[in-house]
Design goal:
alpha/beta, FAD/NAD(P)-binding domain, D-Amino Acid Oxidase, Chain A, domain 2, seven-stranded mixed beta sheet, five-stranded parallel beta sheet, 12 helices, binds flavin-adenine dinucleotide
Length: 362
């Protein structure tokens, strides 16, 4: 039996792919149900990674129907309101990096596996190896289960990870401070028009203000800023002198309390010695700066692990031998690139660095 801890994009993609291969895993998810909490904003899924995983999962058509091509639009401004770059997506543009609401992606994946696959309300706490192979899993409600292979797909603060490595995420020095404006076209039409159909990035000397249109008419608003991990949200939302008034209005229009999310990463290139019967995928394995790669890599991990298990259903160690070295190499390179992009987006000259990256200035 294969146990997947965590029903995020990675864990559910693996469950779907195993299901396609006639293998019935169990997903242990701590959320009480599929709609127990807001899934957050949008994910852009790339052709060669997240979308490749959805192709392997037989869900590409459904994804393309749910994804928003125009979500690829980008407007870059500086804090005085000067437009630096505008990229509007033509109606016939390829779906290279379309955006999908996280909730729509979760629904798509959940709808593609038998309902009994996911055991909701199962908060995994720890596991111990069984003498004959496999693991006994323990949950917060005192229940237990057994498995032959334990896959930790339980995100940044993985409880499965300590079985494989003592490495822990470290703080990047940056926080993301997030809120939202609901029903924005009706309640705040000018601000909704400023954000447009996709992404708005406003570069200030010491922070990056973001606006992102979700599929349901909500606009997600965020500020990325350096500071301590216990930053007070007001430190981010009180814009210093020099910021144009429309950006203050964008923040004032937010109708949810601002939530501070300190950003953590795992060491780039982290690996672990092979251990029979247990592995990791997604953020649990390679938490990286959030520049649009994490979910894509988690889903590709799932596709590759699913393919490896399907190729070696009776020899799960051989499946891990096929999966882990390739995953380590791929995600180390992506984490390196993500760290470089995160660095580009930091500092008083961030706008110029990003414009050069986009080839918009010499
Ligand atoms: C603001 C922001 C924007 C982002 N935008 C993008 C983007 O556009 N594109 C992109 O590719 N990536 C993006 N990312 C990164 C992306 O969100 C993550 O990399 C991705 O969600 C990782 O997927 P996962 O399945 O590994 O883990 P998660 O999505 O974290 O899922 C883990 C699951 O495990 C469950 N769980 C956790 N602990 C336990 C436990 N003990 N027992 C049982 N269940 C448990 C959780 O409830 C959750 O459902 C963004 C991240 C942030 C913060």
């Amino acid at each position: 039996m294969i146990a997947i801890v965590g029903g995020g994009p990675g864990g559910l993609t693996l469950a779907r792919i195993l299901h396609l291969h006639g293998i019935a895993p169990v997903v242990y998810e701590r959320d009480a149900s599929g709609d127990a909490r807001s899934q957050g904003s949008m994910l852009d899924l790339h052709t060669e990674t997240g979308q490749a995983a959805l192709r392997a999962a037989g869900l590409e058509r459904e994804f393309l129907a749910a994804a928003r091509r125009e979500g690829q639009d980008l407007r870059m401004l500086d804090h005085t309101g000067t437009l630096l770059l505008q990229e509007d997506t033509p109606d016939d543009a390829p779906m290279l990096r379309p955006e999908i609401d996280r909730a729509d992606l979760r629904d798509l994946l959940l709808g593609s596996i038998p309902a009994q696959t996911v055991r909701w309300g199962s908060a995994f706490t720890h596991a111990e190896a069984q003498p004959g192979g496999g693991y006994v899993l323990h949950f917060a409600d005192g229940s237990t289960a057994t498995c032959d292979l334990l896959v930790g797909a339980d995100g940044a603060n993985s409880r499965v990870r300590p079985l494989l490595t003592s490495a822990e995420p470290t703080y990047t020095g940056k926080c993301l401070v997030q809120s939202a404006i609901h029903d924005a076209d009706r309640t705040q039409p000018e601000l909704a028009a400023m954000v447009g159909r996709g992404n708005l990035w406003v570069f200030g000397p010491d922070r990056l203000l973001g606006g992102q249109r979700n599929g349901n008419g909500t606009i997600s608003v965020s500020i990325s800023i350096q500071g301590p991990p216990d930053l007070d949200s007001a430190t981010a939302t009180d814009l210093p002198d020099g910021w144009a008034p429309q950006f203050r209005r964008l923040l004032a229009a937010c109708d949810e309390p601002f939530v501070v999310r300190p950003a953590y990463i795992l060491p780039i290139g982290m690996t672990w010695p092979r251990r029979s019967g247990v592995t990791l995928l997604g953020d649990a394995a390679h938490l990286m700066p959030s520049v649009g790669e994490g979910a894509n890599q988690a889903m590709l991990d799932a596709a590759e692990l699913g393919r490896a298990i399907a190729a070696h259903p009776d020899d799960l160690d051989a499946a891990l031998e096929q999966y882990e070295p390739a995953m380590f190499a791929r995600t180390a390179a992506t984490a390196e690139m993500s760290a470089e992009v995160a660095e580009l987006m930091t500092g008083p000259d961030a706008a110029q660095k990003v414009l050069r990256f986009f080839g918009a200035v010499g």
